[in-house]
Structure formats: C-alpha cells, structure tokens
Specification:
heterodimer, A: alpha/beta, five-stranded parallel sheet, two-stranded antiparallel sheet, 13 helices, B: alpha/beta, seven-stranded mixed sheet, five-stranded mixed sheet, 21% strand, globular
C-alpha cells in the first residue's frame, strides 16, 4: 500500500464495512443481538413507525418552507430519523438532552412543539422553547460546544447525589462526525471520563461534514475513540430504530446507575444537503445516495410491520393523514409567526438591569418614534 | 478589622460565598490541594471537599463549558483561569455560549458563572503571563466585567460577582495580590458592584484607572500634589456596565481627563471612555481625553515591562500634556 503524503492512506480502516449492532435489517427482518435484547409490543413498534413518519414529514415541510422563503435556512434530518427516534424514545423524564441544530426528531420525542423549532430558522428568535420544561436544551450551532455543557450538567447530576435512585437522570450529547475533530468534544470526553459522569455521547455519523467526508475527520472508526478516553464505545446501525433504542437505553441506564459514559456511534447517512444552502452534487456521487436509500430507516419498519401482520393498510393511511395534518399546521403556523418587536433585542441580554441596555433601548425607541412624529 | 492581602481577601470572600450557598463551586487547574498557583483558593478543598472544589483537567474550554452545564443544573461555578494569556482556549465558550445563552433562551436560562482571571504585568513573568485582555470581554454583550484594585474590593466584589445572576468576568490584578489593607470581613455594607469610586478627590485633572493601575495613579497623584497639581483619581471597578455618571460628574468639574490602563491603547478600554466622555462632557473639556497604556505591541519580555507598563512618569507626562492645549 502506498501512502499519499498529503491525503494519507487510500484505504483507511474506516472504509471497511463496519461491525455494528443491528436488530432490524434493511429488509425488515428482526435479528437478535446477545447484548441488546429488545422486546417491543406491536403497539410500541407502530408508535415508533408513527414517530419516524411524522418527523420526516415535519422535516420535508420545513425544507419546503425554506424554498418558499418562509425560513432562512433549514438543517434537514432526512435519513437520520431512526437514530433520533430510537435514541429519543430511550430517554426518561429526568434525562437532559443537549442537541445540535439537526435534532428535530429528538425534539419531537421531548414534546417540543415542531413550530417552536422553526423560530431559529425563520430568524424570529435564537431558540424558542423552555429547555427545563422539555429536558431538551436549545440548539447549539457552534460545532461541539454543547458536549461540554452536557458533561458539566452530568457533573451536576452527580453532585445532586441522585445517581442510582429513581429520580436519577443522565445527559445525552448529540453531535456529528465532523464534531469529533473539535477540541470541545475531546475535552468533554476527558471530563466525562475522569469524573465518571452520567453521560451518553450520541454521535450521528452521517458520513459528511458539509462537503468533507469522514476520512477527513478520522482514520479509525469513531466509536473506537472512546477506548482511548477510557469508556466504552460501540457502533450501531443508525438507520435501525430498534437497535438505536436498545443501545441508547442501555447506555443511559449505565449512566444513571453510576457506571459512567458511553460513546454511541450511530452509523447513518445524511440523505439531504447539509442545509438548504448546500449543494451535495458538488462533492459526492449520486450512487452513494442511492446505495443508502436501500437502507432507509422507515421502509424497514414498515416491512417489519407488514411482514408480521402487525399493521394494516388503515393504520398506514392514518399515520399519513396525521403527518399531513401536522405539516399543514406547521405551514400555517410558520406563516403566521410574527416578527419580534425591534426593542425586544435589548431584553434578556442580562438578568439584572444594565444601564447600557436601558440607554440604547431608550435612544432607539426615541429614534423610531421620530419617524412616527414626522408621518403625522 | 483584619489586615489582609488582596489575595487573602479574595480567599476569604470565596470562603464566605461557599459558606453562604452550598451551590457555589470552585473549579480550575490546581485549585484543590495546591490552592491555585497564587493560593487564592487555599484551604477551600480541605474544608469544602473535592465535590465543591474541583481540580479540573488541564483544558480551559472544558472548564468554562462544563461550568455552563453545572450552572444549567443549578450550581454557581467560580472558574479560575490560571493566567490571563490562557483564557483564549476558553474564549469560544465564554463568547459564543456563556455570554449569549440568556438571550438565546429568551430569558429562560441564567448562567451565574464567575470567571476569575489574574491579569496584568509587573511580576517578571514569561510570555502569556502578564496580559490585560479585558477589552475582548467588555466588547461581548451578555458579560459583566469587573476588576478590583484593593483588598476590601477584592473581598466584597468577588462575593457580589458570585451572587450575580449574570456571568461575570472577574479580573484580579496579580501584582497587587500582596498589597495589604484592613478589611471588616463581618460587614456586608459594600459599594455596589457596578459603581465607580473616587479614591482620591482632586480639582484639576480626572485620572481614570482600574485594577493594577489604580495604585500607580494614586502614586502619580501624590507626586503631582507636591507640585501643586490636584488630580482626582477614579477607580472604575466595573468596566461593563460602566458607571459613566461618576466619571462625567468628575470630568465636568475638572475639564481634563487621563485614562490609564496596562492594555494596549489602540482599541483598548480607554478608547470607549474617551469617546463617551467627549460626547457627554464636550463643552467642559479643556483638552482631549488622553490615554496612557501599554504599547500596541505584544507584551514584551519582562526585562522591558517597566518600559511598557504605564508608570508614574508617563501618567504625569500625560497630565502635563492636558495643560498644553
């Protein structure tokens, strides 16, 4: 093997077919894994299917709203529904989520009203929900920053002395493959490890950091990084909602009972563009997208439901209708979302009175009022 | 009254804050057994335990980032950055997260985090150990930025900063850590955190300073007094927010103003002061607001720091120049 001095080895181990935890094949066949037994009722499977369909529909609607000029930007989760719903449905009420800006599916699991996700992308606020109410922190845009917040929050849970009790919670930090190159992510691994903090690092490896492929971030499979930091790491089929649910459940339970952090690498694919301003045709092949389409996270659950006679046509129709209705409400809600008042930008910068905020707000109010005077 | 060094006054202030609120945590590099490289957290881990006085991994961004998480969980972390020049790895977490999270959350989240930073030169240190990075942080909305110049302020201001629901960047003048004064550690009748203080009244020129420069300015004022020139020295104490009222009241009386800080003059905090004073005191000014500070170079090797740092003579030279207009 020759090594290119600039680009490194042409065949990095990363390119090999990964060893991963899988409980549902792309064809919809249930397979068992010794470490991750999972017993789901028909209703639970149907609920997961409903979640998957709905978050995909919400996502498609947001993309459409961007095309129509209603949103300034959207980061699509297309292809990553199973990773998000599987991990999101593993959460308990005491857990705390620290998402990136793409975790619309996890937000759904945490009962954040979809319309509230749009505020940031429409430009009417920087984050419109109450993190404490939902156990779901605000979207963080700077890559990897939130992993440290999650580690710190987990250190707080430790200090509250609740680990191992029924009110124990864990934190889960979401990030992507690109983020694993960030210092903050590596620092959060160190903090979580040395303090044995109750945290799950949930990396959605969607193969692309905008235009840069995984090979530009790592020469080894990402989950193997955990070993170097001193906690377990594993790779799961990120398009398999069952497997994502099972591995995250176990990792969270380990964290809540004081067994420390786990790195879960959900091996998936970003089917769409990085955001609505991106153009993937400039840097990746259509054939790659086509290959991943065959591993679709929703189709395999549908196949499983049909194959095992767990749902009929009426069920699928009902879910479609519900998703359609939600999309309609999202569309209407988005269009009706009012712009914030200009003077509101001075609010909430500080908790306590700040003379500069007061001064500039008053000056700007007087300036705005001067136009009203003129027009009278 | 107890005679305390500025460093010990900070230590006593931190101890009071930890006693008064079990949610107050100390975190940083070497803050535990060692008590910090300047011993500001001396004895705190012994008395409050490792859960509350946390020796962190050697990662500044990690310190601030995890402090944010702890604050979200209801704690009040006090982070020590070991030296001014080491705050930059944490600058991202401070500027993009700590400062902005309250507005991002529409006021739902509070981050009562204090970042303590020993600052300034004059101790013969190697590179990155003598800087004055305050302007980077005063320029960042969402942060409060304060600095103490004497033991009493050190004792009171650190406690007030910890009590603040907003993030506070707390600069400690490292070469003044060993200055002594009497402090009543049982009193809580303190000057408000964001109030400037006239530390020497005068008539002819207003001299504005903060942190380590206050003492130098007081010495300059004493020397000027011997020559019959009366300088009013104001310790700003708080840089964001700025107590502009105390400043303009003085400048409107004296008609002259000199600003002194260790940071480079170009785009330094003095520029903001000069602009605001010019706007608010324009008709009372007898001369432009002059600035004395570090040169617009990186901080020089320590053998040159006496040339770089504003000293008594350079301050008096600027005072003289205000009379030359």
């Amino acid at each position: 093997m020759t090594i290119d001095s600039v680009r490194g080895a042409p065949d990095s181990p990363q390119l090999a077919e990964p060893e991963l935890v899988q409980l549902l094949t792309p064809e919809g066949e249930r397979v068992e894994h010794p470490d991750y037994p999972l017993d789901l009722s028909a209703e639970e499977v149907r609920d997961l299917y409903r979640d998957l369909v709905i978050v995909r529909r919400i996502d498609l609607e947001a993309v459409a709203l961007t095309r129509q000029g209603e949103l300034g930007l959207w980061a699509s989760l297309l292809g990553q529904e199973a990773a998000q719903i599987g991990s999101g449905r593993a959460l308990s009420e005491h857990d705390m989520v620290f998402p990136t800006y793409r975790e619309h599916g996890v937000a759904w699991c945490r009962d954040v009203e979809p319309l509230k996700l749009l505020g940031l992308f429409r430009g009417v606020n920087h984050g419109g929900w109450d993190p404490a109410e939902h156990g779901f922190h605000l979207y963080t845009i700077v890559i990897g920053s939130q992993t440290l917040h999650a580690a710190g929050y987990a250190m707080g849970i430790q200090r509250d002395g609740v680990l191992g009790t029924p009110s124990a919670g864990a934190t889960i930090a979401y990030f992507g493959d690109g983020a694993t190159s960030q210092g903050d992510v590596n620092e959060s691994f160190v903090f979580a490890s040395v303090f044995n903090a109750p945290i799950v690092f949930f990396c959605q490896n969607n193969q692309w950091a905008i235009s840069e492929p995984l090979e530009r971030q790592s020469r080894i499979p990402l989950y193997k990084r955990a070993q170097g930091f001193g906690f377990p790491g594993l790779r799961v089929d990120g398009n398999d909602v069952f497997a994502c649910l099972a591995v995250t459940r176990k990792a969270l339970e380990n964290a809540r009972t004081g067994q420390g952090p786990t790195l879960v690498e959900a091996y998936t694919y970003r089917m769409g563009a990085h955001t609505t301003t991106d153009d993937p045709t400039r840097y990746r092949l259509k054939a790659e997208e086509e290959a991943w389409k065959l591993k679709d996270p929703i189709e395999r659950v549908k196949a499983y439901l049909v194959r095992n006679d767990l749902a009929d046509a009426g069920f699928f129709e009902k879910v479609e209708d519900e998703a359609k209705q939600l999309a309609k409400e999202l569309r209407e809600g988005c269009r009706a979302m009012p712009d914030p008042k200009p003077l509101s930008m001075f609010e909430n910068v500080y908790a306590e009175r700040h003379p500069l905020m007061t001064e500039e707000q008053e000056q700007f109010a007087a300036y705005l009022a001067s136009f009203e005077e003129e027009s009278k | 009254m107890t005679t305390l060094t500025l460093g010990k006054a900070l230590n006593e202030g931190l101890r009071k804050a930890m006693e008064n609120d079990p949610k107050v945590l100390m975190m940083g590099e070497d803050v535990g057994k060692l008590g910090g490289v300047f011993r500001i957290t001396d004895g705190l881990q012994k008395d409050f335990g490792e859960e509350r006085v946390i020796d962190t991994p050697l990662a500044e961004s990690g310190i601030i980032g995890t402090a944010i998480g702890l604050a979200l969980r209801g704690y009040r972390p006090v982070c020590e950055i070991q030296f001014d020049g080491f705050v930059f790895p944490a600058a991202d977490q401070i500027i993009t997260q700590l400062a902005k999270m309250r507005m991002r959350s529409l006021g739902k989240l509070s981050l009562p985090v204090v970042v303590r930073i020993p600052c300034g030169g004059g101790i013969g240190a190697v590179e990155h150990h003598s800087e004055s990075p305050e302007a980077y942080f005063t320029h960042t909305a969402g942060l409060r930025v304060v600095t103490c110049s004497n033991p009493l302020d050190a004792f009171s201001m650190i406690q007030q900063s910890i009590a603040s629901p907003d993030p506070v960047i707390f600069f400690e003048p490292k070469r003044r850590y060993w200055d002594k004064a009497d402090v009543d550690i049982d009193s809580t009748e303190w000057t408000p955190l964001h109030r400037a203080q006239v530390v020497r009244p005068g008539e002819h020129v207003t001299v504005l300073a903060y942190g380590p420069s206050v003492k130098t300015c007081l010495e300059a004022a004493a020397a000027a007094g011997e020559e019959g020139r009366s300088l009013e020295v104001i310790d700003l104490r708080s840089l964001n927010p700025l107590d502009i009222g105390t400043v303009t009241e003085s400048v409107n009386r004296t008609g002259r103003c000199v600003v002194v800080h260790e940071a480079p003059v170009y785009n330094g905090f003095g520029a903001e002061l000069a602009a605001r004073i010019t706007e608010k005191c324009f008709y009372r000014l007898e001369s432009p607001v002059l600035r004395v500070g570090g040169f617009s170079t990186p901080y020089p090797p320590s053998r040159l720091e006496d040339d770089y740092l504003p000293d008594l003579d350079r301050i008096l030279d600027a005072v003289d120049r205000t009379f030359a207009w």
